[in-house]
Amino acid sequence: MSGLYFHIPFCRSKCPYCDFYSVVAAGHDLDRYVQALCLDLEQSRDWYGSAPFSTVFFGGGTPSLLSGEQIATLLQCATHHYGLRDDVEVSMEVNPGTVDVAALESYRRAGVNRLSIGVQSLDGHQLRWLQRAHSAQQAVDVVHAARRAGFSRINVDLMFALPGQSDESLRQTCRRLAELSPEHVAVYGLTVEEGTPLASAEQHGDWQPVDDETYCRHFQLVSEELTSLGYEHYEISNFARPGEACRHNLGYWQRQPYLGIGAGAHSFRACGWGERWACPDDVCRYMVLAEEGTSTRQCIETFNHDQAISEAAYLALRCCQGVDLDLFRQRYGVDFCEYFAEGIRACGHDLSHNGNRCSFNLQGWLLYNSHIENFLL
């Protein structure tokens, strides 16, 4: 399995909590950027290989600032130079307030078959605090518009651990989201990332993050609510109806190769024990490199055997399926339980060994950052 990721780093405005590379779209030539993406796709073929892609993901930023025609151009370019499998999953992030039914229909015609909608909250006060550019009603409306446009696979994003967010408010948001019947829900606790406006506001005493107890309680509440409504908690931050897990993200967690195209995009090549590469976090520099025919990416990490083993454990243990012990032995030539015997003991009852798999339970996921240190070099 091989994935293709397009980074579309343009937004109408910057969210204060976001640390992904993005810029305000005003003043940027989106057509030129799309053409640079196409050039990079063509020029990366010899470097990455030409196996057809199983998944494509348009992330950002706000990819829905691109037109349906521009999305179609990128997918046609990918098809021409690499090929897309017949059952390819093509996901695209959209933000409420940036699309209508006509735009969504154009994305559907272009080849997008899965939407990820940045709802974040259905509470107007919380949306204003997050400085989201949409209302709760616009979030609901875009989900309905996506259905009318023919999308049968929809993810919605939800945030928890927001200042002033009560247990009951979060519970009601989960239930209102479930009434929209998305196939997938991605859930993120608010975290303060260094260098963001949110971090600066905290340092100035303008707000305080919730305490650890509230954070954990909210995480458990969301898991209990969504699983009771028929969603499988298949990865720390992700829930899906049966058969609706995001195949593109599963590729990341299974340490599969993927090609990242765009300013700030990362790639993973299965050379040796693995290599990670990154494009510059600079739209103008990225476009110039692509237009000059110069490599747009640099190697930022080359893995040795032990590092690959460690990362494979780190990624697999994010998922409810955990580590497949037979597959781990085949890929890395070691017995997982012997190699990480000390780490497994340190996790205690939070790490389960069932048949051919090792996986964290919900309590293990709550303490994931602490537990996973036992598996890192």
Short description:
The chain has 17 helices and 17 strands.
In the predicted model, the low-confidence regions spanning at least 5 consecutive residues are none
Placed side by side, the strands forming the largest sheet appear as 9-10-8-7-6-5-4-1-11
Number of strands: 17
**Fraction of residues in helices?**
40-55%
Question: Which overall shape is indicated by the principal axes computed on the Cα atoms?
Answer: globular
- What amount of the residues lies in strands? 15-25%
Number of helices: 17
Structural class: alpha/beta
Rounded to the nearest angstrom, the radius of gyration is: 21 Å
Q: How many strands, which pairing sense, and closed or not: the largest β-sheet?
A: 9 strands, mixed
End-to-end span in angstroms? 27 Å
Taking all residues together, what is the mean pLDDT? 94
Characterise this structure:
The mean pLDDT is 94. The strands form four sheets. The chain has a nine-stranded mixed β-sheet with strand order 9-10-8-7-6-5-4-1-11, sandwiched between helices. The chain has a three-stranded antiparallel β-sheet with strand order 12-13-14, with no helix packed on it. The chain has a three-stranded antiparallel β-sheet with strand order 15-17-16. Helix 4 links the parallel strand 5 and strand 6. 41% of the residues lie in helices and 22% in strands. With 377 residues, the protein is of the alpha/beta class.
